[in-house]
Design a protein that fits this description.
By secondary structure, the chain is of the alpha/beta class. 37% of the residues lie in helices and 25% in strands. It is built from 15 helices and 18 strands. Strands 7, 8, 9, 10, 11, 12, 13, 14, 15, 16, 17 and 18 form a twelve-stranded mixed sheet that branches. Strands 3-2-1-4-5-6 form a six-stranded parallel sheet, sandwiched between helices. Helix 1 crosses helix 12, helix 7 crosses helix 8 and helix 14 crosses helix 15. The chain is elongated and about 80 Å long. The N and C termini lie far apart (50 Å).
Length: 430
């Protein structure tokens, strides 16, 4: 068996603790998979005295990053700190010290991937990042290896376990948003500050990484149109159900005639379709390739062990040399191809519109007339009895229409005196 692969782990939080457990508890199994032992040399943390969820030998713990990455016995640095400040500096320092890097940091890759990958190529090192998107689902390997022969034309994903858990609880348990979110936090699916999850930022970071791998398009997360789940109401959940749908936060990339659209938003997904059945904190990614056709990848997208599984798989690939060969051959994050970005206003979809209106004659006729001004036709209407305040919810499902025309029509509708609150809309039928 070859010389051991020495590892310096940066960060020992939830995922880092899972990596430590796998490396220590399955050392013989991993050595057989990698062809050599995987030996943890250093665990760099901010506070050595902090109590941890895993048992780390005290002699491995250190606060000295420079000592860890300069150790000649270290071959691979595993970055699991998160964020884009200290983590970026640490990764660049590791590459400059001649170490390969494994990371699960989607924010770092999405924001600074070009700089970090250029540094890796400059120093002749490799970066592996399977754990950065969709937890235990090996979607990066699927795109870079398993489906490498394909031109990818569509990616659709449920990429955030927190949002999927909350929406599932609102749908299946009839919970309100705050109750569902509190339960997600209790179970460890959501952070104490869940903002980056629920506002769609986390999914946008992951979509930016997938777009770079699948389409070779450089797109900063802030350039991706996104809507979170904060404003999804129990009423919309119920009306979606009456239309035969469930609401999911979908990250979507569509390639058409060499033009790419990227979007993160709640979507009404038809019941009985694969993405509609993804419940709880699970993730799923639908990939359409021109040769393979429609494929779906499903699994745990959050938590210590699913992501740790992906990280340790990357470490094994580093030990074998497979990750280095793939990294060198693919030249990821280099100047882009000729794919152009397309406005989401041009994307054609069916839409769900919910209008809270005064319960009086002519309101539906007024709404349909304003929609008709943008050549938008109605496929289905649901109207409930009026509430005590004299208002009623009017749910409209449209036929196919460009998103820009739908938004223009809603601008007119929102000026109507009949509306009690601004119109709500989501794409549907995916």
């Amino acid at each position: 068996m070859s010389e051991p692969l020495g590892i310096a782990l940066l960060g020992c939080g939830t995922v880092g603790g899972g990596v430590v457990q796998l490396l220590r508890n399955r050392s013989d199994h991993l050595a057989r998979r990698a062809g050599r032992a995987l030996e943890l040399r250093h665990v760099v943390v901010r506070d050595i005295s902090k109590q941890r969820s895993c048992d780390v030998p005290r002699g491995l713990l250190t606060t000295d990053l420079a000592k860890a990455i300069s150790d000649s016995r270290v071959n691979v640095v595993v970055e699991l700190v998160g964020g884009t400040t200290w983590a970026k500096d640490a990764v660049l320092a590791a590459l400059a010290a001649g170490k390969d890097v494994v990371t699960a940091n989607k924010a770092l890759l999405a924001e600074f991937g070009t700089e970090v990958f250029a540094a890796a190529h400059h120093h002749g090192r490799a970066i592996a990042f399977e754990g950065s998107v969709a937890g235990g689902i090996p979607i990066i390997g699927v795109l870079t290896q398993g489906l490498a022969a394909n031109r990818i034309t569509r990616l659709q994903g449920i990429l955030n376990g927190t949002c999927n858990f909350v929406l599932s609880a609102m749908t299946d348990d009839k919970s309100d948003y705050n109750t569902a979110l509190a339960e997600a936090q209790r179970l460890g699916y959501a952070e104490a500050d869940p903002t980056l999850d629920v506002d769609g930022s986390d999914a946008a970071h992951k979509l930016a990484v997938l777009a770079r791998v699948a389409f070779d398009v450089a797109m900063l997360p802030k350039q991706i149109e996104r809507r979170g789940i904060v404003d999804v109401s129990p009423l919309d959940i119920r009306l979606a159900g009456e239309l035969g749908c469930v609401i999911k936060l979908i990250a979507d990339a569509q390639l058409h005639d060499n033009e790419l659209t990227l979007l993160v938003a709640p979507v009404l997904v038809r019941r009985g379709t694969p993405l509609a059945d993804v419940a709880g904190a699970y993730n799923a990614v639908r990939v359409v390739g021109d040769a393979v056709g429609d494929t779906l990848f499903y699994g745990a997208g959050a938590g210590a062990m699913p992501t740790a599984s992906a990280v340790v798989a990357d470490i094994i690939d580093m030990a074998i040399g497979r990750a280095q060969a793939t990294f060198k051959a693919m030249r990821l994050w280099e100047p882009t191809t000729g794919i152009r970005l397309r406005s989401n206003d041009d994307v054609v979809s069916r839409f769900y519109i919910r209008l809270t209106v005064a319960d009086k004659p002519g309101v539906l006729a007024e709404a349909s007339g304003l929609l008709a001004m943008e050549q938008i036709s109605i496929a289905e209407v649901i109207q409930h009895e009026a509430t005590n305040d004299g208002s009623t919810a009017l749910a409209i499902a449209t036929h196919l229409v460009p998103a820009g025309k739908l938004r223009a029509a809603l601008d007119r509708i929102n000026q109507s005196d009949s509306l009690r609150e601004p119109a709500v809309y989501y794409a549907m039928g995916l």
